[in-house]
Specification:
The protein is α+β, with helices and mostly antiparallel strands. The radius of gyration is 27 Å and the shape is globular. It has three domains: 2-86, Integrase, DNA-binding domain (Double Stranded RNA Binding Domain, 2-Layer Sandwich); 100-180; 209-378, Orthogonal Bundle (hpI Integrase, Chain A). It has 15 helices and eight strands. The protein has helices spanning 8-12, 68-86, 100-112, 119-134, 144-156, 161-180, 209-220, 227-237, 241-245, 276-292, 313-322, 331-343, 348-355, 360-363, 367-378, and strands at residues 2-4, 22-27, 33-38, 43-51, 54-62, 252-253, 258-261, 270-273. Strands 1-2-3-4-5 form a five-stranded mixed beta sheet, covered by helices on one side. A three-stranded antiparallel beta sheet has the order 6-7-8, with no helix packed on it. This is Tyrosine-type recombinase/integrase.
């Protein structure tokens, strides 16, 4: 058995391994839907489900004759019928009712893709958490207890509170859109009154001056020569990793000592002031780029492709271990930027502006750093 993102092209190319009589390839979109590929070459779409505690399956059609979309539509209809027969009080679960899967896959995702840069995170959340639990239900049939059971199931599987809360936020927003778009039969938002679970496990790390020295020494020895520029750039600017990896020379304003970030998490253009240290770093990089990467407009081009790095995880992981900080995340460099500012006496408002936070509450996590600094300051008062 294997589970893949099925497409029409993938299905038509499936071949049964010679040592097997048949094998099953499950769909990622609809739980229980799979293609049964036989040694003879025959293929059928089938649906596996559980009824009265017994695992069963049904054949939906020949995979050479019906399309994947038709198989998915048939699977949705059969699952709704099965659920309706097991819960006759839910009259809204007829075959014509819009299911949770149909709404979030066919309506919600196409909409958020038009404006939301992080739509991929939503897609993953929908596929991995919402559809397996609620996908076959009609939108109008979902009740708060259904979502509460999903939350409890995720807690029992040790999912992080942040993951569960993001799922709740997505459901609330999805149902808000569904109400706005007047989905038939829908009258209330079942996720509206469910509270987020308490999240006390926020991990925030800050570089000490000693750790900063050790980290810089490690990145200078990295097999990825770009890392020795990327890491200090992140510390100097407090930028997010993706913002830095996509940065271009055209967005550096040398006269105003400023860097324009055209695509931010909030979707707004942000201008980051560049310190003397950042400008000196960029000056060295520009001289190096003129010799090593002519024509490239990227600050940190991948030397093999000339495009932005997709990932720098392995070189980063090696460097942080060599520096003695194996748990340090790249995003912690952004936290360190903020901690350096707060401990130098800068206000939280200034930190908010420099980090590009839309809400001061996001920045307030650094308030304890200022209190620590003030506590240290009052220690100089001694009466003996």
């Amino acid at each position: 058995m294997s589970v893949v993102r099925l497409s029409e092209a993938v299905v038509q190319q499936l071949i049964c391994p010679p040592q097997r009589s048949h094998f099953e390839v499950y769909d990622l979109q609809i739980r229980g839907l799979y293609v049964d590929v036989q040694r003879s070459g025959r293929m059928a779409y089938r649906l596996r489900y559980s009824q009265d505690g017994v695992k069963r399956h049904m054949t939906l059609g020949d995979a050479r004759l019906i399309t994947l979309d038709e198989a998915r539509q048939e699977a949705r209809a059969r699952l709704r019928q099965l659920r309706a027969s097991s819960d006759p009080e839910r009259n809204l679960l007829d075959v014509n009712a819009l299911s949770v899967e149909e709404f979030f896959v066919d309506q919600y995702l196409p909409y958020v893709k038009t404006y939301k840069r992080s739509w991929g995170t939503d897609e993953s959340m929908i596929r991995n958490h919402i559809l397996p639990q609620l996908g076959a239900q009609a939108m109008a049939a979902v009740r708060a207890p259904d979502i509460a059971r999903m939350v409890q199931s995720m807690k029992e599987k040790d999912f992080a509170p942040g993951t569960i809360n993001r799922m709740l936020v997505l459901l609330r927003y999805g149902y808000k859109l569904a109400l706005r778009w007047k989905v038939e039969g829908l009258e209330v938002n079942p996720a509206q009154d469910l509270k987020n679970i308490k999240n006390d496990n926020k991990i925030e790390r800050y570089l000490t001056p000693e750790q900063t020295v050790a980290l810089m020494a490690a990145v200078r020895e990295s097999e990825n020569p770009a890392l020795q520029n990327i890491v200090p750039f992140l510390i100097y600017t407090g930028a997010r990793k993706r913002e830095a990896l996509d940065a271009r020379w055209a967005d550096i304003d040398w006269q105003q000592s400023s860097w324009k970030i055209p695509k931010t998490k909030s979707g707004k253009i942000r201008h980051v002031p560049l310190s003397t240290g950042a400008l000196e770093l960029l000056g060295r990089m520009r001289a190096w780029s003129g010799l090593k990467a002519p024509g490239s407009d990227l600050l940190f081009p991948n030397p093999r492709t000339g495009l932005p790095f997709v990932s720098i995880y392995y070189s980063w992981d090696t460097a942080r271990k060599q520096a003695g900080v194996p748990e340090l995340r790249i995003h912690d460099l952004r936290h360190s930027f903020a901690s350096f500012l707060v401990n130098a006496g800068r206000s939280l408002y200034e930190v908010q502006e420099l980090l590009g936070h839309a809400d001061i509450r996001t920045t307030s996590r650094y308030a304890h750093l200022k209190r620590d600094r003030l506590m240290e300051a009052v220690q100089v008062i001694r009466l003996e």
